[in-house]
Automatic annotation (TrEMBL), chains A, B:
Keywords, comma-separated and alphabetical: ATP-binding, Ligase, Nucleotide-binding
The protein's name in its UniProt record: Acetyl-CoA synthetase
Domain spans labelled CoA-binding: 17-112
Pfam families per record: CoA_binding_2, Ligase_CoA_2, Succ_CoA_lig
GO MF annotations in UniProt: acetate-CoA ligase (ADP-forming) activity; ATP binding
SMART domains noted in UniProt: CoA_binding
4Fe-4S listed as a keyword: no
Amino acid sequence: MIVKHPRDYVIDNLQYALNPKSIAVVGASRYSTKVGYKVVDGLKLWGYKGDIYPVNPRADKVNGLKAYPTVKDIPEEVDLAFLAVPAHIVKSVLEDCVAKKVKIVVIATSAFKEIGRGALQDELTQYCRDNKLPLIGPNLVGMGSPYLDFNCGFIPYLPIKGPVAMISQSGANLLAALGSSQKDHYGMSFFVGLGNKADVDFCEFISYAGRDKDTKCLAVYIEGLDSPDAFIEACQNVNKPIVTIKVGGSKIGEKAAFAHTASENAGTSDAFYDEVFKKAGAIRATTWEEFLDISMALGMQPPAKGDNIVMITNGGGSGLLSCDHFERRGMPMHELNEISPSLSDRIRAYMPMFGSPLNPVDISGTASPIQYKGAFTQAMRDPNVHGIIGSICPTAVTDVDAVTDLVIRIHDTYRHLGKPFIMECQGGNECQEAILKLRDHGIPAYATAEQAVNAMVALYQYGKISKGHK
Amino acid sequence: MIVKHPRDYVIDNLQYALNPKSIAVVGASRYSTKVGYKVVDGLKLWGYKGDIYPVNPRADKVNGLKAYPTVKDIPEEVDLAFLAVPAHIVKSVLEDCVAKKVKIVVIATSAFKEIGRGALQDELTQYCRDNKLPLIGPNLVGMGSPYLDFNCGFIPYLPIKGPVAMISQSGANLLAALGSSQKDHYGMSFFVGLGNKADVDFCEFISYAGRDKDTKCLAVYIEGLDSPDAFIEACQNVNKPIVTIKVGGSKIGEKAAFAHTASENAGTSDAFYDEVFKKAGAIRATTWEEFLDISMALGMQPPAKGDNIVMITNGGGSGLLSCDHFERRGMPMHELNEISPSLSDRIRAYMPMFGSPLNPVDISGTASPIQYKGAFTQAMRDPNVHGIIGSICPTAVTDVDAVTDLVIRIHDTYRHLGKPFIMECQGGNECQEAILKLRDHGIPAYATAEQAVNAMVALYQYGKISKGHK
């Protein structure tokens, strides 16, 4: 439902959704296959340190914990009430929550506006707003943070710790990102599903993430904005990179977005959202992969202060994929001799005669760690260079491990220069291991050239946006 | 160098490059860090069954094998001569190969036309053409086939067996694909690096792959075509899907393509290549990931006979990413009730009330294997449905293993219907395992919705191309 501006009482209370001291799980089931059981189980399994109060009128105990018939029967204070009860019971539970002075409620339950029960949903929203009880949801999967060992919902994983706060209307895609986090070391500060966003809106979570000390970048998945002006206002007040992905813009997608999270897209268009994101200073990703790739880069690396990007590779083919993709993305590469007078000669010292000191710089498939080091160092130290993409292709003579380790050392040595550094490592299992190790050391690393280019383009875009901020 | 048409003597002799009974490795080194050593070592390591003759005038033995001073000194017949010697020696080795009646030569050596020695390269080409000795290269990484345990070059991996023949000017990108094969189960029939393609051209390898029984799809990476007409002629005569990726189209890429494989792109444009590929009936990929993704799908699945694609997912978000991407790719999805009168009702039986029988079909995050089975079966059996994308999102109650196994059974059961079936499985390690298992069973499976959509779009495009063939 529409909000005119981000509401302070909501933003202030979001701490109780993401860092609660106590949680009532309403609809906690005794049966391990039920979602109501999974919530309590997930909290315990992942190490939640606060108090858990299962609420179930037909049980004395749930998962080893004392259960209460209603929220009102809980003897201690309740920060967060997490509701996994049938839709028709929700209203009475909310009344209990108001009576109990719960700080915030999360409604996981589905079957509201997305199946035509808009009036029922609006009634809940109005009731919560009248009582200044922020409501997250309904129709969502949950939230959590790896920094707090907090996993609250129907969520099989916690992500690894990292810079990105993910705010997602879709539960499925949020779970996909959490899985990627585990598998591909995409680090997060916190995550939250918004579902139908009947009350708490994007703008409020964006404001909260702007203040969160662990969050360096916001990744926002949107099926429909009810309040574009409040969204723009919130984004403009956050001095961190914001990446968005907007779905539901296709003809059939408009209906699917309503059926999924009751998102309304009638009368909007992709161009409208382009304009909203431009005003907001947010960077829009097109595909899910790009959404993850560029939010990671923006969370880990400083912005590029210009478009003098040098790519250093031992594979001419990956260089070609990169420079074509840079041009496709509207940010063509420049030759070394256009970037800096003697850079080409200085780099040539670190390659065989059949290498190419153009740009991309092809130090050839025979490149040793020493040659990589020399080329990287020359590019890093050159004041005209605004950013570096390194690339490792596993030829029969490439020492992937050694090059990975030296890249980490170079990155640490020159971090104070504030130049973005991105790696591409295309190949088999040893390359995947290199990617994970690089990511663990704060270097965005990818399996294809185009992903690395997308990341650098985003860092350049954010350089321009953040300049406008000042 | 230009060829007017694919040459029969070349095509016939390519069997000696990809399935030789005997190989002379000229420039075979005794020192294990040298590339000349790696070639002999790779042949032995990966189980090559034929005879290996190292050629090295300063060694009696190389890697445990008797070495010969020159090719002419080898007492037995030589099918293939693989040259890893300095550029200035190549001509005299070619003379020995002609004298020895070698069937085909591969020149791995770099430092020819790509560094300005075009005249030297042309001289070698002319010499080989005058003597009807096909020359592959120079400036390449090697070739091989997993079906023959054959790995000939500076290549750290063999791919897994599968349907795709990869023909690549770039060695680095070829190695990346071989690594992906191992890591992501991208199966290949054979692979070859073309390098500078001084003599043997794309058209001849395409013709060869057209006849190869293990090849179901051709994946062709191009930095520049010397002979577009011969390329078109060869493609038109191959009744298998052909996927291309063309680099070197950007301003800086044009120079980089010359510096890499002496590829000439002056005066051409992306539009020119679009036209070439259209005439050829080849499908052009934009990014490296798409190149691998769609070639795998075309190698594994039948073409889509129409655009009535049904997507079945337990994640509304992945459905939205998909339908938006289908529209972005110019192939919008249709609602179930447009595709087939009662399909929506029949599928609704397999989802909860908050699921959505639109299309994408959202059977919801609570979907069981039984519900997946019912929905898949309804879509598969409906004669109006031309193809299916299935999607698994790992919610806390999703049995990823069970759904994966049932997908494999459904695919086997209905394979005779000739409908393409593609899977998406977004999430953590269990999803990556599901993807590998599905691929091993002939089902193209991907980690993101957009990749699955790209694959289905390619199957539809090939459906139209192959109809034109008849």
